[in-house]
Write a structure and sequence with these properties.
About 65% of the residues lie in helices and about 0% in strands. Helix 1 crosses helix 2, helix 5 crosses helix 8 and helix 7 packs across helix 8.
């Protein structure tokens, strides 16, 4: 008679996420998660088949707090998309090291699928149709994922900007100028400013 299962998928996801938050994505392994749970590595295989399944549980846990409900009608469609994006940024940005998992597992994550459905609904209301709507959604997800990673790994106001600011102006005049202006731009302005530029490009 098999032993009864004592751990839930939520327990596994929480332990794996704790490992990622502490040691980065490169620190995630079946052994590390088993140690986090106080069990043997082989014992962990009673609950998940492999690391890929474990990663999927982590990604869904990160996205589970995102409210995918479309904002109520009234404000312009761009403002409603911004609200949806802000929700996603809050949840994903809380665990920046896990961001790549939300990309590699995006096609099977209920949380992200529901969020994407709401974005597509707003794009349809805005008259963005067919292949253009597909590209718009993928571009939006790419912007959010990339911007979150830049925010936590190398924001405009990061230490590297001082090095760029010292580049010789005869070779890098615009890079040097941009680096000197960057420290005055905080993470909120950087993220939502870039988002506004993207959304304006979709037209009316």
């Amino acid at each position: 008679m098999p032993r009864p299962r004592s751990l839930t998928q939520d327990h596994l996801a929480a332990a794996a996420l704790a490992v990622i938050d502490r040691d980065g994505l490169s620190g995630l392994s079946m052994r590390a998660v088993a140690q986090e749970l106080g069990m043997s590595t082989m014992g962990l295989y009673r609950y998940v088949a492999d690391r890929d399944e474990l990663e999927g549980l982590v990604a869904e846990r990160v996205l589970s707090s995102v409210d995918p409900t479309p904002p109520p009608p009234g404000p312009p469609w761009r403002d409603r998309v911004v609200e949806l994006v802000a929700r996603l940024r809050t949840s994903v940005g809380a665990h920046p090291a896990a961001v790549p998992l939300t990309v590699s597992h995006r096609h099977r994550l209920p949380g992200l699928l529901r969020w994407s459905e709401s974005v597509l609904e707003l794009l349809a209301e805005a008259g963005v149709e067919g292949e253009r709507r597909v590209v718009a959604l993928r571009g939006l997800v790419a912007y959010v994922v990339g911007a979150i990673q830049l925010e936590h790994l190398g924001s405009l106001a990061g230490a590297g900007t001082s090095t760029i600011a010292d580049l010789p102006r005869e070779h890098f005049p615009y890079m040097a100028e941009a680096a000197r202006d960057a420290p005055g731009i905080d993470a909120e302005r950087e993220f939502f400013g870039g988002l506004a530029v993207y959304l304006r490009g979709l037209g009316d």
